[in-house]
Specification:
alpha/beta, Rossmann fold, 2 domains, six-stranded parallel β-sheet, 16 helices, 12 strands, globular
């Protein structure tokens, strides 16, 4: 079975979750052959653009769309693909990808993978827009891959004729040996945040939650590109007002070996996001044996169980965020129990299992 896997491989912008997944699969194409699947890759980012244009109707995005369409049609005509696998996200980006699917008139199996889990965020609040997206999926897509069982149930009600499956993300950067041999018990625990520094990721909530916690018990490392935004200024003002300058370090954008080292040297991963799919940083944190404290959005409350491998909160619940951070810092036995639990379940989110399940779905 010959598959064309369509995903963005940006040259200048930072890799997001979709690109990280795609790049990892690209490096493991031989594994697909074990299931009689031949995977080819198509870069849906045909033009370099800035992060701030993402998901917006800009001239550069319109030009990019038509270039992408022509390039994809040429690729399909040149090869006899059995299936087209298109990776997408939400809102305008989803609309763009569905219009692309419609315009190329691919007459074989078409798989759409949505890398977000909130129904309203994915399909919008306006009924007309939501119905348009659902209609395009129903007419032009055979199978849909989602990141959570909760989203699958919501979508199944709307798309009664479309096959839908849940496929959790994976990580392949951290091994069991890495997680066991790198950890060191110290009085000061390392807290880690990895993500964009904006309102959706909830970094400011974390800073507020740290207020009142003994500064001798933690150091908070923040990984994410700094743009000098108003939100970033609010975060830094909150740090300054509460005398946390010596407890918080901004790392900038962290990737590859630097990210692995940072994960392996941390104790608690914090992501009180207001909207997610299933962040790869959380999967990596599980593999690294960190305690996860996150919001219960997307698929996060499906893979994180309170007191077992972490804790979840409602978005914006700073009081509970403070409670769980304090609990982990003050209870060494609980902290180590949860770390060990995460190391034990890490294999559930490995690339081997992901590829096997993906290949099975291609053949449904």
């Amino acid at each position: 079975m010959k598959i064309l896997y369509c995903a963005p491989f940006p040259k200048k912008r930072f890799f997001g979750g979709i690109s990280i997944i795609a790049e990892s699969l690209k490096n493991k194409t031989d594994m697909f052959k074990n299931f009689d699947v031949e995977l080819a890759f198509f870069n849906t980012e045909v033009m370099d653009r800035e992060d701030k244009t993402k998901g917006k109707i800009k001239l550069i995005n319109l030009v990019s769309f038509f270039r992408l369409k022509n390039k994809l049609i040429k690729e399909i005509k040149s090869n006899d693909y059995d299936c087209l696998h298109v990776n997408t996200s939400f809102g305008i980006a989803l609309l763009k990808d569905l219009l692309l699917i419609k315009s190329i008139k691919f007459n074989k199996k078409l798989v759409l993978q949505i890398h977000f889990c909130n129904f309203v965020e994915v399909f919008g609040r306006r009924k007309f827009f939501s119905n348009l997206l659902l209609s395009l999926i129903e007419k032009h897509v055979d199978n849909v891959i989602v990141l959570s069982e909760k989203f699958k149930k919501e979508l199944s009600v709307k798309l009664k004729k479309t096959k839908i499956v849940t496929l959790y993300n994976f990580q392949d950067a951290i091994t069991d040996e890495d997680a066991v041999t790198t950890k060191k018990d110290t009085k000061i625990k390392n807290l880690l945040f990895l993500g964009s520094i904006d309102e959706r990721k909830g970094l400011l909530d974390t800073i507020k939650a740290l207020k009142g916690i003994d500064k001798e018990t933690y150091h908070f490392y923040v990984g994410g590109k700094l743009y000098g935004s108003d939100y970033e200024k609010m975060v830094k003002n909150e740090i300054s007002e509460n005398g946390m300058e010596n407890n918080v370090t901004f790392l900038g954008y962290v990737q590859n070996e630097d990210k692995i080292k940072r994960l392996l040297s941390s104790d608690i991963f914090i992501l009180p996001s207001y909207g997610e799919g299933l962040p790869i940083s959380v999967i990596e944190s599980i593999a690294a044996g960190l305690v996860i404290i996150s919001s219960n959005v997307g698929a996060l409350d499906e893979i994180i169980a309170n007191n077992v491998n972490g804790f979840t909160i409602n978005p914006g619940d700073i009081k509970m965020l403070n409670t769980y951070i304090s609990k982990c810092l003050n209870d060494e036995v609980l902290l180590n129990k949860i770390k060990n639990n995460n190391r034990k379940i890490a294999d559930q989110y490995c690339i081997d299992t992901y590829i096997e399940n993906l290949c099975k779905f291609y053949k449904i």
